[in-house]
What we know:
Layout: E1 4-5, H1 11-15, E2 21-26, H2 31-47, E3 52-57, H3 61-70, E4 76-79, H4 84-89, E5 93-94, E6 96-100, E7 106-111, E8 113-114, H5 115-124, E9 140-141, E10 144-145, H6 179-183, H7 196-203, E11 211-215, E12 220-223, H8 224-234, H9 241-251, H10 258-263, E13 269-275, H11 278-281, H12 296-311, E14 334-336, E15 352-358, E16 362-365, H13 372-383, E17 397-401, H14 403-411, H15 416-426, E18 428-430, E19 449-452, E20 455-459, E21 467-471, E22 479-484, E23 496-499
Parallel strand pairs: 1-4, 2-3, 3-4, 13-14, 17-21
Antiparallel strand pairs: 2-6, 5-10, 6-7, 8-9, 11-12, 13-15, 15-23, 16-22, 17-22, 18-20, 19-20
Helix pairs in contact: 7-8, 8-12, 13-14, 13-15
Amino acid sequence: MAQIVAAPMALRDVRSAGVPAVLFVFETDCPTCRLASPYVSRLAEAAGPLARVIGLSQDPQDPTAGFARQTGAKFDVWMDEGFAFSRELDPGFVPAWYVFDAKGQLIRHWVGFDKAELNTAAAGLGLPALASDSDGNPPSKPGCTSRHREGPDAGVGVASPEPAGGRASQIQLAQGVDPWEYCRGWDPLPVVPPTRERVERMMGDRDPAELIALVPPNFGPATVEKIAANAVMAGCDPEMMRVLIPLIRAVCDERFNLHGVQATTHFACPLVIVNGPIRTELGFASGSNVFSNVARANSTLGRALQLILTLIGGAKAGEIDMSALGNPGKFSYVIAENEERSPWPPLAEGNALTLFAGAPPAGFSEHRARDAQTLLRAFSKVLATTWSPRLCGMVEAFVIVCPEHAATLARDGFSKDAVRQHLFENTGVPVREYDDDGEGTQFQQLYTRVTIRGEECYRKFASPDQMRIVVSGGTAGKFSAVISGWQSGPRGSQSVTYRI
């Protein structure tokens, strides 16, 4: 783990090391710095004694220790007290990177997060590539203004801005003010007043000031205390913090692209799928009415998430959240997989949560199909309409298979992978549908042309991996559903799974 050095250090200590050195300048509340930190750890581990990898923090020691802990830093961190380093180097932005050779000469410098620059620097040290195109993070991302340039008081060691941690503010209501009615101004629905006693009970023995994540689009600081306050307002049981804290980390994962999901005009909002024994421990619903308001765990976890996205992240409807029609899932959108009635391995092993930026469920009935081939044809027809009836190759979907349909598919020898492969090969849009200039027709030259059941079609999905299968719902009634995603791939939103 990281060793934080608070004693005064100077640039000459880097230059006189006698081995190559990489200096990573960061701020604790910079989202791009947090994105970059795991790559710096990877570099430090790969370099070993061949090079020194040093983080240079522009913030005080407590938030720096929090940053190191939260990002799993495995590189030494020096404190830039009084911004002596920063003033000598004078980076305009952070993260800033400086690569020195064994003689102490600066040989490479860049700012922001850039996979190509990282891999070039690693190659110069004789190390393998640190970043791949398919690791889920963007190729590059700009950072924040360097702390030493933030204002006239920046050089006197002022406290780090509140996003690095800190306690939530408290409100003293005047005598006679109804706390329930006062809190109605925070959300259209009533919320439980987050009194000090309730919030402390929700937090347990966790550090109230610990920063869990910065919530886009406003990058508001989600500390343990603020998460707990929203959990109280949503009606969560204190045990739900076990799930809510990793959920906030997951929703702020760069791959999920919460900024885009929060601001899109599309229907998408975060769908949470829970796996593992924690489903029964905390009472998550996975059977009948799974998408309904039937279990405290499902409803309050989803409600707490939505309150955090609005009150901390700032995505208020009609201001930043510009969804044209919205999504009832923005009240709560949490389900658990019905692992007990599934013939297949679960979506995620052990206690885990998976996030997907999904539209509302598109349910359908298929009670007459007696074999897998007939049943899968119904799934294909619904999948063909995801996002837009004529847009192909740029969409993802979650397929929610009810237990009775899953039993039919498994009886005929279909595994989850076999179902995905069959749907990939047999889901398409007939070429004859492209007889005007409606949405999707402008990309025809990019589509793959195939023959499905004797008809010329454009293949709907780019790969089988663009479909994920979850068994959920009740055992009486053969109703399944398809949930369309938002934009797919690194430029859109990617599904993420976090351990609980």
